[in-house]
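Progress report, Aim 2. The chain analyzed during this reporting quarter is listed below.
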Amino acid sequence: MLRVIEFTMFAALLGCFLWGPETVQPLQAEGRKVVQCKDFKVGSEVTLKGKVLGREKRPEGVADSNLALRVSTADYGEINVVYSTFRLCHNEVGASVREGDRIEVHGKAIGKHRITVCLSSKYYIKKL
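Predicted structure tokens for the chain:
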């Protein structure tokens, strides 16, 4: 039974990335939603909680660029949270969190699965 649920969750996540949330309906397992893909509305403010999966990889050969955390969330799946931008912004909490930490983030959507905490002093990353 556990393998069936794992496979169903994997298939739903894969579907969200391949076909987008418009064509993939949330799957049901024992009456509960398993996966629900959402995209951010670019330009909107977003508050979410999630688990840090690691850091986004920098393009090879780039010494100074955006630094971002990869975060797993219940509502949006895996997203990237930009906490440092070309030395114009640097969030100390974003720099100090580790893989496995639970965080809360309030920022601005700059892509379908990307937010930044660098555009306003009211945006934050907080360890839970």
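The CA atoms of residues 13 and 74 lie 12 Å apart. The first strand starts at residue 28 and ends at 29. These observations will guide the mutagenesis work planned for the next reporting period.
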